[in-house]
Amino acid sequence: MSEHEEEVKWAPLEGGADPHPETTEFHRDPPQAEQELAMSKDIMAMPSEVQDRFKALKVLYDRCGDCDEEEEKEYREIEKKYEKLYQEYYEQRAKIVKGDIDVPAELIE
């Protein structure tokens, strides 16, 4: 497999779980795979100069996808940070709502 080719990964069968979710970057369902195969056949029938353009566009598309994945990971790290910061306030709020604690004076002044 060349540097810019990718391995096709299929979506798990209905009702089945992905046996390796940590290694699966994306899923293609069978109808999508069929559509991509048809497009691929059309592209392969084009002149090589045009095929190269499609290959370059695919590489750029994949690189954007890599950036998207990185962005999602970074967003999740930020979310985790703030979830920890908010946790104390959420716990205190729950205790006040349940009546487990008296309302601190500092909160009602």
Explain the overall architecture:
The protein has a domain at 46-108. The protein is mainly alpha-helical. It has 3 helices and no strands. The chain has helices at 30-44, 48-98, 105-108. The model is unreliable at 10-14 (pLDDT under 50).
Features:
rod-shaped, 109 residues, mainly alpha, 3 helices, 64% helix
SSE diagram, text form:
Layout (H helix, E strand, L loop, with lengths): L29 H15 L3 H51 L6 H4 L1
Determine the structural class based on helices, strands and strand pairing.
mainly alpha
As residue ranges, the low-confidence spans are 10-14
Query: What is the C-alpha radius of gyration, as a whole number of Å?
Result: 25 Å
Rounded mean pLDDT score: 82
Shape: rod-shaped
Total E-strand runs: 0
SSE ordering: HHH
Strand residue content: under 5%
Question: The biggest beta sheet, please?
Answer: none
Helix content: 55-70%
Distance between the termini: 68 Å
Number of helical segments with 4 or more residues: 3
